[in-house]
# Entry
Amino acid sequence: MRNFDFTPMHRATVGFDQITDLLGRVMSNDVAQPAYPPYNIEKTSEEGYRISLAVAGFADEDLSIEVRENALIVSAKKADEAETSYLHRGIATRAFERRFQLADHVKVTGAVNVNGILQIELMREVPEALRPRQIAISKAPKSGMKAVTKAAKAA
# Structure
């Protein structure tokens, strides 16, 4: 796979460091993403999302959900069990840490563990100041346009 250098983007943009860092992480192949535990990402509404992770064998106290610097970190560590002798062990309860990069203004609104599926609810809450708004165009009298033009020429 090719390695891309995003340094020229830093020279031509202001405030987009997170995007170029994210592209760099995605394009790098030196960090393999773990396949455990399996998960789904669903769109539940126009602004709502749900991440579902298969966490069979883990109790609520074994799981940890943390949001840090636009990253959702889900981890689990099974409490030490008494020595158990298995004839077959097919349910994996090994420790894991799964990271999800969150977009700006995406907030975690709740989590529930039902029947071995951990469901994390997310909601995009764009502040009112950042939402698109319509600007009304008013009609100025003809004499008003001359005053605006004169003011623009004076500036």
Notes: The first strand starts at residue 39 and ends at 43.
